[in-house]
Amino acid sequence: TCQDVNFTSKLANHTIKSGYTKIGDKGQGVYYIFYGALNTTVADLSKKPVVVYLEGGPGLSTFLVNFQAIGPYDIIQGVNSTYQMTPRNANNTWNTEFSLLFIESPIGTGASTAGDASYFANSTSDIASQVLKSLEDFFGNCYSIFTNKSTTPSIILQGHSFAGRVAITLANQIIETNSPLRNYTKGVMAVSPALD
Questions:
Q1: Is the bond into 106 cis (omega within 30 degrees of 0)?
Q2: Comparing C-alpha atoms, which of 167, 155, 174 is closest to residue 191?
């Protein structure tokens, strides 16, 4: 089950949701932040593909790319060293055409929680398994608009650097395990991938 974190913004002209997907019984939670496509009603969200963004490392947070590259907001330093969240120009965000789902993986990265060190991933396959459980929970339980199979959007997995390897492994696991996401996963993008 998901634990919602309230995230409100006067800037939002779209759906924003953040929280934790539970992938174990010992407090393990994968943090996510979801931005519905800009200027899209909740009822129409299923018509826009969702880009699932995974950062490399392994263990680098998605926050940097979210707030300084492809997300709908920039965080800039304001007066007296305060920081402000400001909308990014629509031409400079992927969120114009896609919904974005940033996943903090593996467990223990960024805001994600491990419960204890025994739950840290030891391989690319472990990381992909954690993300798969998280995605199945998100699309199956966390966000009611997507829990009806007829309203599940197309999913594109995007991995940067080492996460390019994770995204490819994840796509393979979706197929091999006959995941409920199998019919909705439409592609994989590996950006500057760290491949053998």
A1: yes
A2: 167
pLDDT tens-digit map of 162-171: 889 999 999 9
Show Cβ contacts of residue 14 under 8 Å, excluding neighbours closer than 6 positions: 35, 36, 37, 38, 39, 40, 72, 95
Distance CA 194, CA 179 (A): 26
pLDDT, tens digit, 9 for 90 and up, residues 107-159: 888 878 777 777 788 899 999 999 999 999 888 877 666 656 666 789 999 99
Give me the numbers of helices (H) and strands (E) for the chain, helices first please: 3, 9
pTM summary value: 0.88
Strand-pair partners of 75: 85
